[in-house]
Specification:
This protein has 3 domains: about 375 residues, no CATH class; about 55 residues, no CATH class; about 110 residues, no CATH class. The protein has about 550 residues and is mostly helical. The protein is about 70% helix and about 0% strand. It starts with a helix and ends in a 5-residue tail after the last helix.
């Protein structure tokens, strides 16, 4: 009777609602903060391609590639209601937030059912809902949160199935594992191996369980073969460093996956002050598994969890998975980490020998988790993040910050021509494109000109170099460069037009440069009536850009 009463009060709706509310506040605070940052306002190239493909699918236009992922199709549904890229980004983040809340709820519920203690509900729920890695990726155009939600539901149903195998759970677990694999390729071994377990574990109707569990992954692979559906990332078979790859999948170091989470953790205090991380979860999960065994239970669930981790580590090593892929297993670790609530009782009753075992095991697990920090510099991938942050800031008009990030990238790789060009554009924007344009003395122009030497520069930076030549009265040399770059640079075409080398530019001709730097300035310039009495802002700006030096 006591046990029945305890189980009925174990998962109080109010308790779960409070945990979900805490997780919701966490993600809303992060979104509010992140949306004010250049990284949150300017999606990277891969994200922009995904958004564009989703928008094209929504209106029936062909995409640049022959196939699309399940995540792209998911975003295309949202794109039917959110037409602009900005609103679609907000919708995608909202979907990620809902997936995080769902993951939190199912993980907390699974921990309550598994451990039969209220504390475990709180521990598991908050380890997921307040996890900085999950909330960081929730702010990206990324399928990792949807894959995490599918994994959480699969784990919740899997625990119920292990207690009493039912046909609906055999197929249910398989469906969610398959969806998780469709969103994150590194999880593909899980739905492929699940039918084997569904066949071997039950005592009755094994064939039925196996067939039901096999159907969803077969359907997914069939769709991939005969339709335009693609996996989130192509299957790679990288056997060169498989041992290192397996350790990277299980050790604390975050693998690079479009973003270096370690860098953003250092940049933003809201992430830095959050102590939850993979190494901590791994240690807590190990202690929770030990507590489960000491509590007198069989090790079936633990064996299954270790098998999932091993399969994922192997797949991640072969397919070069990163931080996003590994984030999908955070609910699994959190579920077993909740078992640390049993350790105080075990510790009090333990002998000195048992206590020593716990201490040694914890130290060994910690050494395994954190050993990578002593052998590998995690900042080696930061150059790509510096490049992205420089590009984001230059696009948003933050010239000083763009130069700062570009200089950091050049410290790592002095031959990075893209960052040299960012510095050139930042210098140009600073004096030419701000709210208060500045006229330049000859000394400054010569210094800027030296920085913007063409070499392997882009058409835009060559156009800027020619502007400096023009301001130094080297008119023919400047015009020659503009004419050479006019087809590839909106700024070069604009300079030819404003200096009278081209009599007219139609709106249709200008639209061909859409998406290039300074396209908006070109578009505004062709609307200016230079014979009108009014001297507008665009006219003032262009006259200052092409004014001779003093």
């Amino acid at each position: 009777m006591r046990s029945s009463s305890h189980s009925t009060t174990l998962l109080l709706p109010g308790q779960l609602r409070l945990i979900l509310a805490i997780a919701l506040v966490h993600v809303v605070v992060w979104f509010s903060y992140y949306s004010q940052l250049p990284a949150g306002q300017y999606p990277d190239e891969a994200a922009r391609e995904t958004l564009q493909a989703a928008q094209n699918l929504a209106i029936g236009l062909p995409t640049q590639t022959s196939g699309n992922t399940l995540y792209t199709y998911t975003l295309s549904i949202l794109a039917r209601f959110f037409e602009s890229s900005e609103s679609l980004v907000i919708a995608a983040r909202t979907l990620n937030a809902l997936a995080l809340i769902l993951s939190t709820g199912y993980c907390a519920s699974a921990a309550g059912r598994y451990w039969r203690r209220n504390r475990t509900v709180w521990i598991a729920g908050l380890l997921v809902g307040l996890n900085p890695v999950l909330v960081f990726w929730a702010g990206q155009i990324s399928p990792s949160l949807l894959a995490t939600a599918c994994m959480s539901v699969a784990l919740w149903r899997m625990l119920r199935w292990l207690r009493r195998p039912k046909a609906r759970d055999s197929v249910g677990v398989s469906i969610y594992l398959t969806l998780a694999a469709a969103f994150e390729t590194c999880l593909l071994p899980l739905p492929l191996v699940w039918p084997l377990l569904a066949f071997l574990y039950p005592h009755r109707k094994r064939v039925m369980h196996g067939i039901l569990a096999l159907a969803p992954p077969i359907l997914l692979l069939g769709f991939v073969l005969v339709s335009s559906l693609q996996l989130q990332s192509p299957l790679l078979w990288n056997f060169d460093q498989i041992g290192t790859g397996i350790y990277k999948a299980l050790g604390n170091l975050e693998g690079y996956d479009g973003r270096s989470f370690a860098l953003y953790r250092e940049l933003h205090l809201i992430l830095l002050f959050n102590p939850i991380h993979w190494g901590l979860l791994l240690i807590l999960a190990g202690l929770g598994m030990y507590a489960r065994l000491k509590d007198g239970h069989r090790g079936d669930n633990i064996l299954l969890a270790v098998s999932i981790l091993a399969l994922f580590a192997l797949s991640s090593a072969l397919n070069e998975g990163g931080s996003q892929a590994r984030a999908t297993l955070i609910p699994l670790l959190s579920l077993f980490a909740a078992g640390i609530s049993l350790l105080p009782k075990i510790w009090r009753r333990a002998s000195q020998r048992t206590r020593r075992k716990i201490q040694v095991g914890t130290i060994l697990l910690a050494l395994f988790a954190y050993a990578g920090h002593f052998t590998e510099d995690q900042s080696q991938t930061w150059e790509r993040d510096y490049i992205y942050l420089a590009e984001a800031n230059i696009q948003l008009g933050n010239n000083d910050r763009a130069s700062t990030w570009a200089e950091k990238a050049l410290e790592i790789n002095p031959n990075n021509t893209e960052m040299q060009e960012v510095i050139v554009m930042a210098q140009f924007n600073d004096w030419a494109m701000g709210t208060r344009q500045r006229s330049l003395p000859i000394e400054d122009i010569k210094a800027y000109q030296e920085t913007s030497q063409p070499n392997t520069a882009s058409a835009t930076t060559q156009a800027i170099y020619a502007i400096y030549k023009y301001k130094l009265r080297e008119l023919e040399a400047a015009q020659a460069i503009w004419k050479l770059q006019r087809d590839a640079s909106a700024l070069a075409l604009l300079c030819l037009y404003w200096t009278g080398q081209i009599a007219e530019i139609t709106p249709g001709e200008a639209k061909a440069y859409e998406g290039q730097p300074y396209y908006e300035l070109l578009r505004d310039a062709i609307k200016v009536n230079r014979n009108a009495l009014e001297y507008g802002n665009t006219e003032k700006l262009l006259d200052n850009i092409l004014a001779f030096a003093y």
